[in-house]
Design brief:
- The chain is an alpha+beta fold.
- It is built from three helices and three strands, in the order βαββαα.
- Helices cover 41% and strands 18% of the residues.
- The chain has a three-stranded mixed beta sheet.
- The longest helix is centred in the C-terminal third of the chain and has 12 residues.
- The protein starts with 15 loop residues before the first strand and ends with a helix.
Length: 74
């Protein structure tokens, strides 16, 4: 059977804005227990994706805290 992406996608998308702080993005990842988030501009157009790895390249302590939260059982 042919399936479309719409049938398996996550319908409730969480995201961050491109002008938010890196700490806020990492905190959001930790709270949502996700390793990646879409990044939107203020016109709500997709401009990229941020990952915990991206955060770790700039802020190791911030990424470590987020990773700890992401890894906790929900």
């Amino acid at each position: 059977r042919h399936m479309s992406v719409r049938e398996v996608m996550s319908p409730d998308i969480k995201y961050v804005y491109d002008d938010e702080s890196l700490e806020d993005a990492a905190r959001t990842m930790g709270e949502l227990q996700v390793r990646r988030l879409p990044v939107l501009n203020r016109e709500k157009r997709l401009v990229g994706i941020v990952s915990l790895g991206d955060v770790a390249l700039k802020k190791k302590d911030t990424a470590g805290e987020a990773l700890k939260e992401v890894s906790e059982p929900s």
